[in-house]
Amino acid sequence: MKKYFFLSSILLIMLFVSLSLGYAGQPAVKEDFRPASTNQPGRDYPMVNSEGRVRVQIKAPEAQRVQLDISAVKYYDLVKDTGGVWIGESAPQDEGFHYYQIWIDGAAVPDPGSMFFYGAGRWGSGIEVPAHDQDFYALKNVPHGFLNEKLYFSQITQSWRRCFVYTPPDYETNSKSRYPVLYLLHGSFEDETGWSNQGKVNLILDNLIANEKAVPMIIVMDNGYAFKPKNDLDQGSPPLFAFEEVMVKEIIPMIDGSFRTIADREHRAIAGLSMGANQAIRIAINNLDLFSYIAGFSGTPNYPSADKIDRDKFMNGAFKDGKTLDRKIKLLWLSLGTKEPDPFPGSVGAFRSMLEESGIKYGYYESPGTAHEWLTWRRSLCQFVQLLFK
Amino acid sequence: MKKYFFLSSILLIMLFVSLSLGYAGQPAVKEDFRPASTNQPGRDYPMVNSEGRVRVQIKAPEAQRVQLDISAVKYYDLVKDTGGVWIGESAPQDEGFHYYQIWIDGAAVPDPGSMFFYGAGRWGSGIEVPAHDQDFYALKNVPHGFLNEKLYFSQITQSWRRCFVYTPPDYETNSKSRYPVLYLLHGSFEDETGWSNQGKVNLILDNLIANEKAVPMIIVMDNGYAFKPKNDLDQGSPPLFAFEEVMVKEIIPMIDGSFRTIADREHRAIAGLSMGANQAIRIAINNLDLFSYIAGFSGTPNYPSADKIDRDKFMNGAFKDGKTLDRKIKLLWLSLGTKEPDPFPGSVGAFRSMLEESGIKYGYYESPGTAHEWLTWRRSLCQFVQLLFK
User: Do B142 and B124 share a structural domain?
Assistant: First the structure.
């Protein structure tokens, strides 16, 4: 009896050691994978475990090599089972949303199990790694606003454009109320769908408004890419950027004409992420008659430089007279993820130093444990909108 | 000189013959391919030519076999060039919208060049083959309505659901006007995104309203799948279908509460495609106090049977007293594509015979040259909405 107990103990210890280390001495993968919240309806894969590992599965019986490509730098080899199904997982990922794709014999394709998102210049797979603070963007039993999609023709760019507009839960029922407006800009290689699909802007606002942590507001999400048409002689010249002009002359008048807005600078904010942060700060500083609340998430107009900013020259000296500028701005607000790569910490830091030297007050937030990704921006939005229009 | 001319002529004739027949005597493919309108921004492939052939291209240098899979029945082998890029095209397709996918060494994946659509039970690639009458759903310089997206919790299904609502161009500006409502249902293995993404409902209505061919109306597109939760003992039993109850008790009151509707049966229509046609006709006939306009596109409640309908038994005898029913219905309207496969022509035909025997008047439309696909339903919608609320 004692002998059996001793043998069982040895076996149990061996089992424990092998589970802990896995094969070939690698750290064991925790087998608590669950389907990702970003999956297509009814799909079990991709999955995520409590360590943040992403496991994918795809049937490709004739393939020689299948890999998971996530976080832009790592390729993870999948292993084929006897049924021709490839399976494998990544190293632990940061909490939050990540773009990814699958390589099949040298072809980069979306994972047919995931929903698709526009980012990195393409519609492709994305996956949600549950975050410890995901409650603030969870779908809850609170009143929900509408997300309104509008097509319009831009005379400036001579092209069709699309705008998404969030209206707060009481917008339809309080048919006399007027609302302040936040213009919210996406990043480079993203588009007007980013803030609602990846950014969860409607859920963040629905939750904050339900808890009276944010005032009901309208949020406008347009496309930050806008170029004037060139004539035939100009074809070789650089693109004619026109987003500021489209924003000021077309988007704002359209929104004020179609929605019950409070159409003055005290009730108009502009914010953006990365490229959109650069745009938001520039547009606001150039148009202080239109905006009084300004935010840049993971970006500033001196991007990508980390050099000390020359206030006499930067943005045509807009920050030279800091005191006057400070009086005109109700709130200037910046944010960054603690794991952001170069050049973001350097360039945001140089911009902050310039503000401090100029005597311009600003708010600042750091998203813990996140890089240049959507959880940084969801958290930044959640922090920023609580300060608006109060 | 003459000799050269003669040789050149021979070469030209050979060139012409080879271009006309292609290799191995196959009919030549017309080389007038252009990027599809359904492509991701900036992508050249997939392409469509004037014959309706779909040409795809994908880099897969290590793959052994790559195929295009379109129209559910055909696999077209692609050919690899020296750079590892596979290319090839389908036979001519019907005009209109088609789902498709690519097979890479046995893996079925979306084409990373196309936009993605929900149909056939998955988000995947779709392609638009230009139609001779595509003008009616073209994006034009006319006033455009909004597409509004709303999340709501259904008490009946104990689940979160999503609803898309089209409001006509003058809805925001005529802030006192009230509007009639069309409830528009998708088909099986589709969802609430189908009618706006593949169906182009907003563009069809914008164009018709601009030309005063349709009255301004609100169009509601919800998800036709709705099931009551089961308790633990019921798990093996069939699903508890609840869409009619959700429509009557939750969706209609929500829409009448959130939008400026004319909330009576004279100003409420219901229509659907395929499975949604079956649902629309059943829901309307069961709730004639709510609806007076009814349409089924490519579907009827006797699906999939083509047998003669027994009016005493069919839908609990709802069509038995045809004259009374006929007086209550303002418009009953059916449609079908001329190329629809079995069982649709048979079952729609049997339903029409039953209506005729019952003395129930109905409108009927056939979409020329289209099968059980979205161009049939775009055309049907365009025809039907012109008859509504007049």
Answer: no
Do residues A68 and A178 both lie within one domain? no
Give yes or no for residue A119 having a pLDDT over 60.
yes
Q: Map chain B to HEC letters.
A: CHHHHHHHHHHHHHHHHHHHHCHHHCCCCCCCCEECCCECCCCCCCEECCCCCEEEEEECCCCCCEEEEECCCEEEECEECCCCEEEEECCCCCCEEEEEEEEECCEEECCCCECEEEECCEEEEEEEECCCCHHHHCCCCCCCCEEEEEEEEECCCCEEEEEEEEECCCCCCCCCCCECEEEEECCCCCCCCHHHHCCCHHHHHHHHHHCCCCCCCEEEECCCCCEECCCHHHCCCCCEECHHHHHHHHHHHHHHHHCCECCCHHHEEEEEECHHHHHHHHHHHHCCCCCCEEEEECCCCCCCCCCCCCCCCHHHHCCCCHHHHHHHCCEEEEEEECCCCCCHHHHHHHHHHHHHHHCCCCEEEEECCCCCCHHHHHHHHHHHHCCCCC
**Confidence (pTM):** 0.92
Q: Which of residues 226-245 of B touch A (CB under 8 A)?
A: none
Number of domains within chain A: 2
A217 and A326 inside one domain: yes
Task: Lowest mean pLDDT of A191-205, A212-226, A257-271, B168-182, name the range.
Answer: B168-182
**Would you state the pLDDT for residue B10?**
55
The domain boundary, picked from A114, A130, A146, lies at: A130
pLDDT attached to residue B191: 98
Q: What tokens were used for A238?
A: 């650089």
Q: What is the mean pLDDT of chain B?
A: 93
Amino acid at B170: D
Residue B17 banded pLDDT, cuts 50, 70, 90 = very low
> Could you say which residues from 116 to 155 on chain B have a Cβ atom under 8 Å away from some Cβ of chain A?
116, 121-124, 139, 141, 144, 146-153
- Report the pLDDT averaged over residues B331-341: 98
Same domain, B286 and B263: yes
The answer as to whether A368 is a domain residue is yes
Instruction: Check whether residue B324 and residue B350 sit in a common domain.
Output: yes
**Shortest CB distance from A58 goes to which of B64, B107, B116?**
B107
The whole-number pLDDT of residue A235 equals: 72
The domain of A200 spans 135-385
Reply yes or no on whether the pLDDT at B2 is more than 60: no
Residues A88 and A141 in one domain: no
Residue B81 forms part of a structural domain: yes
Q: What number is the ipTM of this complex?
A: 0.90
State whether A65 and A177 are in the same domain. no
- Output the pLDDT for position B197: 98
A:281-340 residues touching chain B, CB 8 A cutoff: none
A231, pLDDT greater than 90: no
Per-residue pLDDT of B281-323, as tens digits, reads 999 999 999 999 999 999 999 999 999 999 999 999 999 999 9
CB contact, 8 Å: B259 with chain A? yes
Enumerate the residues of chain A whose CB falls inside 8 A of the CB of residue B116: 110, 116, 123
User: Which CATH number is B368's domain given?
Assistant: 3.40.50.1820
What are A323-371's pLDDT values in tens digits? 999 999 999 999 999 999 999 999 999 999 999 999 999 999 999 999 9
- Pair B206, B264 in one domain: yes
Q: Evaluate whether residue B58 is within a structural domain.
A: yes
Question: Which of A76, A99, A130 is the C-terminal boundary of a domain?
Answer: A130
For A25-54, what is the mean pLDDT? 94
| Average pLDDT value for chain A | 93
Tracing tokens 């994918």 back to the chain, one arrives at A56
Put simply, the answer to whether A106 touches B202 (Cβ < 8 Å) is: no
> CATH number for the domain including A95?
2.60.40.10
The verdict on residue A5 lying in a domain is no
